[in-house]
Write a structure and sequence with these properties.
The structure is a homodimer of 455-residue chains. Chain A has 455 residues and is of the alpha/beta class. The first copy, chain A, has 14 helices and 17 strands. In chain A, α9 links the parallel β12 and β13. The first copy, chain A, is elongated, with a radius of gyration of 23 Å. β1 of chain A pairs antiparallel with β1 of chain B.
């Protein structure tokens, strides 16, 4: 093996911070780990309220609960921001049955309807199935081979991606765009392999987006183990048929709310730093990692600040955004109102990647802002938060981008996220107390650094 | 707040590696994540064999199983290394009952005997309890207050330590030395708060060490929730009594084995790099994180090397050490034989901190060796393995230190380790496939870098 070696001297300039900075960060982590409330708040959100799909009674109970939680912190303001949200309902337990396969006889697949999709109607539908690995493959097959059939998207997540969100991004087009793309070629329904790195028995739901001017067709996610089995069956029995019955539907928009609480800045109250997560979740589990964690961590940021008696120079505001999962109406409304009020948001920090050990922050902002945040790395690295990198943000804070806000996403360890994502097992039990607390502390530390030093 | 800022220019020299190095590391991780076998091997070890206390039938089944596993890899050598090990048995389910407290009446505490301890005898013992927070406090109280009583060690792990192993180190003297230290003052038994960062219902066992010339007294661990309750009761009822009954005992030493497999180096076969974990575990759970994970990862190192067709320059040897938990006889014997054979171990890499996402390696070695390994950081950091630091190694490879071996410990994320450590819930279900695989890949990458570049 011939090896090329080169030598490079990197001159890296680190700001070495005064003791006060590192002591302050230490105090924040100590408070989170010794007196943290995020874990018990998450337990309430998951166990007493549960899944919180936009427009559901649970989502309104979550609005009420988080508002009261923030009121108990004696913040400068706590208020609700009304926003109309779509109201999609899953309806009865979905059925997908392979009819009389030669290998197994009739058998049921573990499925669930994708968010925002229509149902099959009461009689259900029965059709042959055609398996594809990509949207591109639809065009190769053409209308002749797809018309009247159920399209089965079965491209797995790439296991070699170290960050599982990259694996997810590389496969999720099948779920979000697959239904309408298949409908263009006459498909009558879509079955999508669940978006998870594991082989498991849980169908992972998630949003699908219908294109205008294309017929809306029913679409479901199938558990990965069942996807493997179905794929195997289709190899020997390409003519097998599936009976599919779902009763999901989109109802009228209804009124809901973003929940907002803030600590006003002492020197520059008009410069706002938002910390947030989304309060809605899918209906199947308890919305623990997605995104109860982000909500209770954001409230924890304010609790820690109050508890340590910190008077931040700039305003720090926690927002529980509504409707990230199937509409993003909360995030969109929040940015619209901020624009109308001419509020200045210097940074948004979102936690929407699970309540796991924090490893860093991903930043969507100018080189200058990224360099400034990176200069604080030595303050955060002792807590395992070492990965400050370009790229990130969060769906809910995304609409603030056009206002020049630097968007920052908390980056937790990603390995376990898609084990639970959008399933019935995204429950409180899957969240580790210390991991959740470390994430909230990391957000607090960064929010305070931005508040005290500007951005 | 007055802040002191200083500016420092750090000149850091990085070796920039040839493509071949980074491609090789990439291949190792791809193989682990795409075709990994460590997870299914761990399932067998946990579910078909289970807890594997030294000397137990299960420990011998594990010897047999891992030997066969390595034989199936077509290594250059696979063999057993005989070693006599202590055989401690827990006996019947332990009982600790608070007798007629005024608050609750009689109630049972969730306890388990500490490893290596003697039992109470069939009648059990009944005595008053005195709570202490430290061994030092025993001397302050003196014989007068301790004699004839059960000493209750109740100092919690410090939650503010970011690395939970530091919190463990700061509390574990109560478990390992507490029994003999209390016996010096006439205590007749010891109850120790479980060594975990959580409040939970599981007693966490672990080894105690009796001092020579001090009476041996029974000692148990109590679940942290029950420790809190007992402490509360003692505040209002300092005279309450506890009935304690355990039947653990130390039997005669028995024959067991270290299990060894190796791929011989092509250029410097006499320079050995050991990768290892310990095959024995406590009896309560399945020894999944502690340390089935380290064993299957070490075997995975060899499997990946074979599977990729790598012919390492130096010898890479996997060792499943026996008896780490209650004697360290396997590690001691291994080093003794290495010494006798005049084998040269240039490095030992141990995985005994759980099958969680790898974050780095801790090194016990010279500045020069640490600098050399640190120079490879840019090859490992893309996989989340960024924390190359002084300090570490592992219990089993520890005895090689006097032979000049550089000792290296895999550092996984530590947040969840003490949730499961030494309990009935250290089971296969608590291990995440990808996290386990990433750890094995990180070990492989480092072993190969040392093999190809020397140390």
């Amino acid at each position: 093996m011939k090896k090329v070696f080169a030598c490079l001297i990197l001159i890296t300039s680190f700001q070495v911070f005064g003791q006060t900075d590192s002591i302050l960060v230490r105090k924040i982590f100590n408070e989170a780990l010794s007196n943290g409330k995020s874990y018990e708040n998450l337990e309430y959100l998951c166990k007493k309220i549960g899944g919180r799909l936009s427009g559901s009674p649970q989502s309104l109970a979550a609005v009420e609960y988080t508002k009261k939680l923030m009121e108990s912190l004696k913040l400068d303001t706590v208020y609700l921001q009304p926003v109309m949200v779509p109201q999609w309902i899953r309806g009865k337990k979905e059925i997908a049955r392979v009819l009389k396969s030669r290998k197994h006889g009739a058998l049921n697949l573990r499925i669930c309807a994708l968010g925002n999709t229509i149902g099959t109607g009461e009689p259900g539908i029965t059709a042959e199935v055609i398996e594809v690995k990509s949207i591109a493959e639809l065009a190769q097959l053409g209308k002749e081979k797809i018309n009247g059939k159920i399209v089965f998207f079965n491209r797995p997540l790439d296991p070699t991606k170290i960050n599982t969100f990259q694996a997810y991004s590389g496969a999720v087009d099948q779920r979000s765009s697959g239904p309408s793309e298949a409908a263009k070629y006459g498909a009558i329904a879509v079955i999508v392999r669940s978006m998870t790195t594991r082989l498991d028995i849980y169908p992972h739901t998630g949003g699908a987006r219908y294109l205008a001017n294309v017929p809306k067709i029913p679409a479901v996610a199938v558990a990965t183990i069942d996807a493997e089995m179905l794929s195997g069956l289709l190899k020997t029995e390409p003519d097998l048929k599936i009976f599919l019955k779902t009763s999901s539907e989109m109802l009228q928009d209804v009124l809901s709310y973003n929940v907002i609480g803030e600590i006003r800045g002492t020197e520059k109250p008009d410069e706002i730093i938002v910390v947030g997560g989304h309060l809605d979740s899918w209906d199947q589990g308890e919305g623990a990692h997605d995104d109860g964690a982000g909500c209770v961590q954001s409230i924890e940021v304010l609790r820690i600040i109050k508890s340590l008696g910190i008077k931040p120079k700039r305003t720090i505001r926690a927002v529980m955004f509504m409707n990230e999962e199937n509409g993003l109406r909360g995030g969109t409304k929040y940015a619209e109102i901020a624009q109308n009020k001419k509020e200045v948001h210097i940074a948004g920090i979102e936690s929407d990647a699970g309540g796991f050990s924090p490893r860093g922050f991903g930043i969507d902002g100018s080189d200058e802002k990224i360099a400034k945040i990176t200069s604080w790395k030595s303050l955060l690295a002792p807590y395992g938060v070492y990965d400050i990198a370009r790229g990130g943000g969060g769906a809910d804070i995304g609409p603030l981008k056009s206002q020049g806000t630097t968007l920052i996403g908390l980056l937790p360890d990603s390995q376990r996220y898609f084990d639970y994502h959008h399933t019935s097992i995204d429950t409180f039990e899957q969240v580790n107390k210390r991991e959740l607390e470390l994430g909230g502390a990391a957000m607090t530390a960064l929010a305070i650094l931005i508040s005290e030093k500007g951005l």
